[in-house]
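Posted in: Structural Biology > Protein-Ligand Complexes

Title: Requesting predicted complex, inosinic acid in pocket

I'd be grateful if someone could produce the 3D structure tokens for the following input. Sequence and ligand are given below.
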Amino acid sequence: MIGQNETILITQEAIQKRVTALAAQITQDYEDKELTILALMKGSVVFLADLLRLIPIPLRLEVLPVSSYHGGTETSGVVTFATHFLPDIVDHHVLLIDDILDSGTTLKAITACILEQKPASLRSCVLLHKKVKTQPGIKAEYVGFEIPDAFVVGYGLDYQEYYRNLPEIRVLSAETIAQRSQK
Ligand code: IMP
Ligand code: MG
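-- Reply #1 --
Done. Output follows.
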């Protein structure tokens, strides 16, 4: 079984409750607007699936494969995504969805690219926010949980592509990092 060494930071119940509240807020804010949700893959996949089903307004969904971590637990600072994946968003209200706002490098790069296409508006929604690491001036309008500066996995978030299938958010342990780095 996975996650045996990792302690739970946010339970399934707590996530569900918060996602429900976020969805209600988003529904209210975009009720009469042309909404396009742009979800960053793969980290947001579980969050997206839960959130989306609680937003009962007309909307379009687009996904964008993005990577910024390359192996370890520290961001590489380099964000890779293919711009041909970006949908036509002229005059649409765009809501970016990501798993976690850490340094903010990812959101900054994607936001800049989207704004070039002149959407009607652009906001971001993240499940988690590691405040201590975020560069000044970068924020998400919708945040599920503020968390401490620990490397977390589960509910879509990975470590070296594993642990996305954990149903809750757990803190990756030093034992696991040591074990996996030997592989
Ligand atoms: P940023 O560009 O530094 O804000 O990092 C954002 C991306 O890094 C997220 O979309 C995640 O994929 C990844 N990331 C940052 N912190 C964590 C973590 O604690 N666990 C898993 N992935 C993380
Ligand atoms: Mg990600």
